Amino acid sequence: MAGMEFKDCIVIGAGPGGMTAALYLHRFHRNVTVLDAGNSRARWIPRTHNCPGFPGGLSGDELLSRLHTQAVEYGTRVIRATASQMLPVRGGFQVTDTEGERHHGRTVLLATGIKDALPPQPWMEEAVACGAIRLCAICDGYEASDNNLAVYGPLRSAFEHARFMRTYSATVTLVQSDDVAVDAQLRQSAEDLNITLMTRPRDLLFDGTRCVFAEENGKHHHFDTVYPVLGSRSQATLATALGASVDTKNELVVSADQMTSIDGLYAIGDVVSALNQISVAVGHAAIAATAIHNVLPQNPRSPGSACSKRNMPL
Ligand SMILES: Cc1cc2nc3c(=O)[nH]c(=O)nc-3n(C[C@H](O)[C@H](O)[C@H](O)COP(=O)(O)OP(=O)(O)OC[C@H]3O[C@@H](n4cnc5c(N)ncnc54)[C@H](O)[C@@H]3O)c2cc1C
Q1: How far is CA 299 from CA 31, 296, 311, in A?
Q2: Exposed end of the chain (fewer CB within 10 Å): N or C?
Q3: Beta bridge partners of 174
Q4: Measured from the CA of 116, which atom of ligand 1 is nearest?
Q5: Please, where in the chain does CATH 3.50.50.60 lie?
Q6: Do 282 and 19 contact (CB within 8 A), yes or no?
Q7: Whose CA is nearest to atom 49 of ligand 1?
Q8: Under DSSP, is residue 63 helix (H, G, I), strand (E, B) or coil?
Q9: What is the number of alpha carbons within 13 Å of residue 270 lying toward its C-beta?
Q10: Are strands 92-97 and 83-89 parallel, antiparallel or unpaired?
Q11: Ligand 1 pocket member 17 (CB < 6 A)
Q12: What atom of ligand 1 comes closest to residue 39's alpha carbon?
């Protein structure tokens, strides 16, 4: 690797996690490369109401834009590229992107998130934008309080989710997406919890404001909000290709300072085995960036160093 310039850290992913990590690392006077494929889950958020410090809420796009502006103020530059391969090399890691560009870092921080499995209908993004489809009850179950709710997915996981949704509404229907038989115990539990059961519908439709499940017999059922629970795909392959440990959902297992089982490879946010929330991703970022700064060789300032932000007003 002679002649190669090694950055202190390569951050892969510029969602809330990656951008917060880049901000922290630059504020430790570290040099960082940020690679991003430009598909943060946060961009699906019509308006988040549980992001601390934003009474009235804000859209996912606005949050991403604010995080970007803040990190850029300290020197972050995001390269629009998809990392396709990561190899351990002498002195750190080599990350190759899909354009064939190679990036070298003493450490790597993976903030690549997950991808939701969604029903295949072409109107899905429009339905998410108006709240007819919601993907995360912890995020926005409150906003769906007392609505006529449906949870759509395989029987077992949909039942657990429907039970959770009873915190928010007295009217919850479990719409089964698989053919698993409903046993007597589950039927009784559903009855006890006042959860209506609907077996595999013929179609899922959208009328512009609400979703509708059509049954074989032609009956249509309208819901204010549908929560699909069809799973998600963890975007951890760069790390798993190196043998990094994962949980049963293929999400990365990390130490208390966010390091994966691979020395020098850190992971934060949704790609990690933890609660998938913005505040968790930014918390992970603070922990990981501080740990990375502390394991890297010290970077003492020289007397002539000039920090462009030194004289900023408080
Ligand atoms: C509809 C919806 C509503 C939500 N509402 C809320 C809410 O109200 N409150 C809340 O706390 N959370 C909410 N969430 C969850 C929240 O969006 C995520 O927890 C958060 O975005 C996770 O941040 P992250 O940085 O880990 O990942 P992400 O934001 O998903 O960012 C990952 C980034 O990595 C990039 N990437 C992936 N692979 C590569 C690669 N190989 N090379 C380069 N780049 C790559 C992606 O393109 C993406 O830009 C919601 C999610 C959805 C879908």
Answers
A1: 11, 8, 21
A2: C
A3: 151, 197
A4: 53
A5: 7-116+232-295, 124-228
A6: no
A7: 40
A8: helix
A9: 21
A10: antiparallel
A11: yes
A12: 47
The CA distance from 45 to 55, in Å, is: 16
| Residue owning tokens 């002498």 | 90
Query: What is the C-alpha to C-alpha distance for residues 23 and 65, in angstroms, rounded to an integer?
Result: 14
Return the residue whose CA atom lies nearest to atom 46 of ligand 1: 39
Provide the residue-wise pLDDT of the chain in tens; the chain has 314 residues: 566 799 999 999 999 999 999 999 999 999 999 999 999 999 999 999 999 999 999 999 999 999 999 999 999 999 999 999 999 999 999 999 999 999 999 999 999 999 999 999 999 999 999 999 999 999 999 999 999 999 999 999 999 999 999 999 999 999 999 999 999 999 999 999 999 999 888 999 999 999 999 998 999 999 999 999 999 999 999 999 999 999 999 999 999 999 999 999 999 999 999 999 999 999 999 999 999 999 999 999 999 887 766 556 66
Could you tell me which residues are beta bridge partners of residue 203? 214
In single-letter form, the type of residue at position 278 comes to I
**H-state helical runs in the chain:** 16-27, 60-73, 124-129, 137-140, 155-165, 184-192, 237-240, 278-295
Q: Which two tokens stand for residue 120?
A: 């295949």
User: At which residue do the structure tokens 């440990």 appear?
Assistant: 245
The pair of structure tokens assigned to 222 is 């309208």
From CA 269, how far away is CA 280, in angstroms rounded?
6
Query: Could you give the C-alpha distances from 199 to 81, 143, 153, 178, 210, in angstroms and in order?
Result: 43, 27, 10, 8, 20
Quote the tokens at residue 155: 């029987």
64 CA from centroid of ligand 1 (Å): 10
Q: What is the CATH number of domain 7-116+232-295?
A: 3.50.50.60
Q: Can you give the three-state secondary structure of 244-284, one letter per residue?
A: CCECCCCCECCCCCCECCCCCEEECHHHECCCCCHHHHHHH
- Residue 118 beta carbon below 6 angstroms from any ligand 1 atom: no
